[in-house]
TrEMBL record:
Belongs to the WD repeat EBI family. It holds the Pfam family WD40. PANTHER family: F-BOX-LIKE_WD REPEAT-CONTAINING PROTEIN TBL1X (PTHR22846:SF52), WD40 REPEAT PROTEIN (PTHR22846). It is found in: Nucleus. The keyword Repeat applies. Keywords: Nucleus, Repeat, Ubl conjugation pathway, WD repeat. One of its GO terms (biological process) is regulation of transcription by RNA polymerase II. F-box-like protein involved in the recruitment of the ubiquitin/19S proteasome complex to nuclear receptor-regulated transcription units. Plays an essential role in transcription activation mediated by nuclear receptors. Probably acts as integral component of corepressor complexes that mediates the recruitment of the 19S proteasome complex, leading to the subsequent proteasomal degradation of transcription repressor complexes, thereby allowing cofactor exchange. Its main location: nucleus. This is F-box-like/WD repeat-containing protein TBL1X.
Amino acid sequence: SGFSHSAFTFGIESHISQSNINGTLVPPAALISILQKGLQYVEAEISINEDGTVFDGRPIESLSLIDAVMPDVVQTRQQAFREKLAQQQATSAAAAAAATAATAGATTTAVSQQNTPKNGEATVNGEENGAHAIRMGHLQPLWTTSSSVSPPSQVLFYLLGQHQEGFLSLYNCLYRSGDSTARIWNLNENSNSGSTQLVLRHCIREGGHDVPSNKDVTSLDWNSDGTLLATGSYDGFARIWTEDGNLASTLGQHKGPIFALKWNKKGNYILSAGVDKTTIIWDAHTGEAKQQFPFHSAPALDVDWQNNTTFASCSTDMCIHVCRLGCDRPVKTFQGHTNEVNAIKWDPSGMLLASCSDDMTLKIWSMKQDTCVHDLQAHSKEIYTIKWSPTGPGTSNPNSNIMLASASFDSTVRLWDVDRGVCIHTLTKHQEPVYSVAFSPDGKYLASGSFDKCVHIWNTQSGTLVHSYRGTGGIFEVCWNARGDKVGASASDGSV
């Protein structure tokens, strides 16, 4: 109830109850299936008509991640709408006939008016425009729910063994959570007290008091030396924390959820992207917004620094903008994707930008030209994320060729030779969508994590499987430690 003219936001909201689901026009069974699958969607807003078509003209089959993860949901939803519409039409006809038999005047007119669609649109459950919007937020890693559909106890772990070259002091474990906290775990093997944790509670000011925001922590990132942690939240605030868990700054200029957040290498600026279609560069020392970039026409999903003052951003508007601090317009705009752009990554040298999209393509861009250098088409479903190998020019492994890894909802991982623009290995052991890939520090191995609960370790030169591990839940994030002898993985059951 109360959602008839507003989007039902559930992508990152953590406290969805059964009554909320039943109170909307989204078929509960389909929504529960989506939630239990841990559906990851990169900020789509779509309206579905009764006949199963999308309000903006796209067929429902183009709903990228619903179709990619659960094509049966599409068919079920279409059938449900057809049955509902047929039932309403039958009820309407019966009511009109009964009214006509009872009286041939005003009553018939009233019944007819009650059941006549406005502007040619049918009504469903009292909704005038006959369409209902589904908004799914960008979240990385993903989340799932238990069978009760209420996930307050479910948490999202994010293991950081190595952030950047300078962060070697601690082997820390953090997770992103639906309880409006982040946590820092000290896993120093030399610690006498064992593993200890710091709880970073995300609060907002209400009535002169700090109360939990009750919004998910959607993103986090260490600065280069591991002394400060930045977090982004669905409450629209970014926050900076000290390594001992104290809140240093609250950054509050976004109007809506923050989807991505990253420090620059120097550590003086933080970059954030949000549902409000903007990206912001923050001064990490003062907590002030240095510049807000309002160039996207839809929610911004990911950002990545090229250097300390220049960055790229991508969006559901299918565009990629390269922006620079102090410039009032993009220094470069890349267009060519035909669907939402999920992730972008600069190569280690900062010369090439890789992007992946729901259009199932991976594209390589150069600042020297407007069109893409390579348009890599091999995946059969949406590409969720990409990672460059820590090899080649500008890395600690300059004698090894650079590679790019892509993870897709088609359950495969592909390794690409970017110089030639060809796929050199297709890694096909996973049985479900792959959400995360990570190269070992020397680039010799690749870890991949999938919703099939498996973490696989691959030899990047031969493409052979080296090790396999099966967890207790769908794997949403994998990461190597700095030494390259451990892999962390976060699972949908709340374990790491």
